[in-house]
Amino acid sequence: MELRLINAAGWVKEKSPLFDNLVRSPVLSEITIGSITVEPSQGSTGQNFVILEDGTSVNSLQLPNKGLTGYDPIFWAIVGAIHKAGKECRLSIAVKKLEDIHLFVNFAERHGVDVLELSLECPNVVVLGAHKPVFAYDMELTREAVSFTRNLWDGPLAVKLSPYEDDEFSLHMAELMNELLYEGDSVVLCNTKGGFSPRDERSGKPILRAITPDGMEINAGGMGGAMLKPIVQNVIRIFNGVLYKYIGIDIVGGIRSGQDIIEYEAIVGNIRPVTYQVGTALFGEENVRLFSDIAEEYVRLSTTTPS
After folding, report:
1. What CATH number is given for 5-43+63-195+225-303 in this structure?
2. CA nearest 141: which of 187, 113, 180?
3. What is the mean pLDDT of the chain?
4. Residue 2 binned pLDDT confidence (cut-offs 50, 70, 90)
């Protein structure tokens, strides 16, 4: 099967040098924009994104973006540039309440978005010192959000879920996706793991020191990259054994080499559409050449015959 690589949500939210390089990449057939929210979000400041030596990341970016009103006059140019390059535009939306979905779908349709990625939801939004509830850990909220979106949106839908560590919950969530998703839809496994607070070995102080717009310091955020990978692998094993074969899996979690692709491929096999998303490795360096390096190593490893 053809190797499909795309950028993960979280970093590219408007035109920038990174956006331009992604659009020019010969490896990518799809560009992810977002995640975005209905209302504009200032995001956090300070030490809000850190990559550890082993390739693990932690972030509490707080979803900085312009909001739908801010994107409305400029988004046509973003989608136009992606389409001109012969690629598809994936829009990642962070749903904070069910009423947001109608606004997102209307926006996506008006601007010619190809794939809608429903993030349920970022686990690192802090309001008045408290983390907002995560839709993806509530079966009924997830059912409502996906059903509502699927009824409004005619194009491919990708539902981004959390890195579940309860195998039984993963099983039931996979069964729910079978009820709600259509052919051409996919499940994104997985979002970051919330509540991660790495500390400096010498001082013992938290490495993450994100400052929220209301002036609070946040020392815990979403784990991505290397340490997330084994959790994602386990979730994929469960979902892959339950999901109908016409539902795709978009894999995100610690992908930085062709070897990572080979390891994930060994779990998911070739029974369904699979897309691989690169987040931490790209966000740390903003080096789009990374996608070509991953693809080249993957081809080399997958065609090597053991002696």
Report:
1. 3.20.20.70
2. 180
3. 94
4. confident
